[in-house]
Design the sequence.
């Protein structure tokens, strides 16, 4: 099978791309998708270590992470819809009311 | 190279290409479809790593639920393309720098790690029975907590996305419970009309 570092490196690359998306994009829906990508990269690391150690426990964690991701995206999209209704914008630069 | 290794590398390359597509696409619909490609490729890797149940769940939950929900939301909102290359922005420059450093650092750190041989796995590894043994055994409490979290998430989503300003017994809900956003001058006209 594939050497372990290659799979973990793939997970790290996907996580870093997600982090780059959060840091550089301005569309709040794309920000949400970047967070999903980061969660999924962590899932890949969990499953890789679970397979290489022959222990099922990592997969239990992945199941729970997926549930949290589903709940997160439901609440996140509801917040975005609610924001969009008030401001007609999905650009995160337009939301500065918390700025002091 | 065995067939399994070949597929892991293939799906890995597809996953990275999809993720980069999400990063650079200006149209949010294209970006979300790129991300769906990444999720499907990751499901392939999960299957190659003997996590068959989670590969299916990945397909159903991530591509079937999360991406579809995001695409529906984008279609509801009628938004245009994001202007990525607008002008040089200090915050964005710092973001690219920090993200690039994170990428280089993490890849270097992970590639230097030692490899171990995969352990032989039993018959229930990765299938529904194996996952159930973990979830209903040692991790029963987290499992129940996550169920409550889903319920709370559903209630929160319904409450947050409720039609704001819907008249209720003659009075509008907005004036009853004003939020800082409602009192601002830039309230959307559609909101005032109701």
Sequence:
């Amino acid at each position: 099978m594939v050497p372990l570092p290659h799979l973990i490196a793939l997970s790290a690359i996907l996580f870093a791309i997600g982090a780059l998306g959060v840091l550089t994009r301005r569309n709040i829906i794309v920000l949400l998708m970047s967070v999903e990508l980061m969660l999924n990269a962590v899932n890949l690391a969990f499953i890789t270590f679970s397979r290489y150690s022959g222990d099922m426990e990592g997969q239990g964690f992945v199941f729970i992470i997926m549930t949290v991701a589903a709940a997160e995206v439901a609440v996140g999209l509801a917040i975005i819809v609610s924001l969009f209704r008030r401001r007609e914008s999905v650009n995160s630069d337009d939301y500065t009311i918390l700025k002091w | 190279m065995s067939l399994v290794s070949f597929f892991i590398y293939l799906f890995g390359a597809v996953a990275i290409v999809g993720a980069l597509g999400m990063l650079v696409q200006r149209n949010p619909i294209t970006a979300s479809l790129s991300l769906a490609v990444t999720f499907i490729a990751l499901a392939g890797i999960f299957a190659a790593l003997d996590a068959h149940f989670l590969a299916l769940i990945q397909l159903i939950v991530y591509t079937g639920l999360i991406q579809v929900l995001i695409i529906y939301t984008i279609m509801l909102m009628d938004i245009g393309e994001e202007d990525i290359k607008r002008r040089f922005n200090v915050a964005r420059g710092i973001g690219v720098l920090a993200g690039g450093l994170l990428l280089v650092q993490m890849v270097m750190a992970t590639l230097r790690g030692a490899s171990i041989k995969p352990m032989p796995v039993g018959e229930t590894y990765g299938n529904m029975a194996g996952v159930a043994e973990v979830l209903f055994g040692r991790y029963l409490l987290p499992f129940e907590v996550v169920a409550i979290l889903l319920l709370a998430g559903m209630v929160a989503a319904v409450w947050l996305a409720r039609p704001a300003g819907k008249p209720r017994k003659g009075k509008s809900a907005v004036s009853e419970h004003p939020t800082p956003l409602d009192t601002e001058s830039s309230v959307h006209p559609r909101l005032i009309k109701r």
In short: The longest helix of chain A spans residues 57-87.
